Amino acid sequence: MKSLRFLLPLLLFIVLLMFLWVGLSLNPREVPSPLVGKPAPPFQLARLDDPAKTLAEKDLRGQVWLLNVWASWCVSCMEEHPVLVQLSKQGVVPVYGLNYKDQRAAAQAWLDRNGDPYTLSMADPDGKVGIEYGVYGVPETYVIDKTGVIRYKQIGPVTQKVLSERILPLVRQLQAS
Amino acid sequence: MRWVLAATLCLLPVLGVAREATPAAEDPALEQRLMRLAKELRCLVCQNESLADSHADLAADLRQQIRDQMKAGRSDEQIKAWLTQRYGDFVLYRTPIKATTLALWFGPFVLLLAGLAGLLLYLRRRRARVGQPGLTPEDQARARALLREAEQGSSGPDAAARG
């Protein structure tokens, strides 16, 4: 009983430390999306390469796909770009680009200059579809399953680590189911 | 030379004329309602600013969306629900009370009550200790007996032998 009196403050201090440790290591910019586990919001957007043609979210049902929100004005997009290019070469999973609040010419030039990792890109010039998807920063990447349900959202650049540890295992699991 | 410079400097403000202010809202009442609502919503880009104050692009877009929805006759609650569906409760400065936020809302009061209970317990125990006489009657009887023994002992054989 006597020793508890001295141990208790120490234990409380350790608990406090653990709370601080976890709390301070969380990134406040990463706001968990309420859309994970919900059907991907529908859209029908003009294709970046050919504005006369459109692509809708329901055209992509039946396969696992990634939706990558990008823009030519986005600095961090350059960071994840090599990772996406490499992914597209592997051909494991199709990556569709949502060209967010961008100009067609600038976006096209960006792809020509840096390489195009996308199966297709759609243009969302006024960011309306972005809002439907809860986009608040670029880049963002969504994993969408065969039935059109969002399974994962990556806020910020896709790194090699995130890709190999989170996205690809999830994609394989969803493809198998 | 100097007057050339001076003349140029005088002309500079002409070049820097401010852009015409964007026309004030066509519907001041709606704009007021928009601002009142937007003050309670967090901008996700600059997280410590409200949607009303933020200059971020997204904030402007969202304000426009809210404006459109208000024009379409949707209530503040409906608009808030529309936003939380996309961005989560994080956009609300007033956190709703629900199962996952119970600890947040009531945790501090629970801690306060626990502290008060601890204090009360401690005080009560201390009062019990202070209020009690130091020795029970039995203890006092034993102490008296021991003292008496010691007094008798000092004039006893042991003491004589030592002396």
Note the main attributes of this structure.
heterodimer; A: 177 residues; alpha/beta; Glutaredoxin; five-stranded mixed β-sheet; two-stranded antiparallel sheet; 5 helices; 7 strands; 41% helix; 19% strand; B: 163 residues; mainly alpha; Helicase, Ruva Protein, domain 3; 2 domains; 7 helices; elongated; disordered C terminus
CATH architecture of the largest domain in chain B: Orthogonal Bundle
Number of strands of chain A: 7
**Count of the domains of chain A:** 1
Main β-sheet description of chain A: 5 strands, mixed
* H-E order of chain A: HEEEHEHEHEEH
* Top CATH class of the largest domain in chain B: Mainly Alpha
Number of strands of chain B: 0
Give a brief rundown of this model.
The complex is a heterodimer of chains A (177) and B (163). Chain A is α/β, with parallel strands linked by helices.
Describe this structure in words.
The complex is a heterodimer of chains A (177) and B (163). With 177 residues, chain A is α/β, with parallel strands linked by helices. Chain A has one domain (34-176): 3-Layer(aba) Sandwich (Glutaredoxin), CATH 3.40.30.10. In chain A, 41% of the residues lie in helices and 19% in strands. Chain A has a five-stranded mixed sheet. In chain A, strands 1-2 form a two-stranded antiparallel ribbon. The model of chain A has no long low-confidence stretch (mean pLDDT 93). Chain B has 163 residues and is an all-alpha fold. Chain B has two domains: 25-96, Cytochrome C biogenesis protein (Helicase, Ruva Protein, domain 3, Orthogonal Bundle), CATH 1.10.8; 100-155. Chain B is elongated, with a radius of gyration of 40 Å. The chains are: A alpha/beta (177), B mainly alpha (163). The interface between A and B is medium-sized, with 16 and 15 residues.
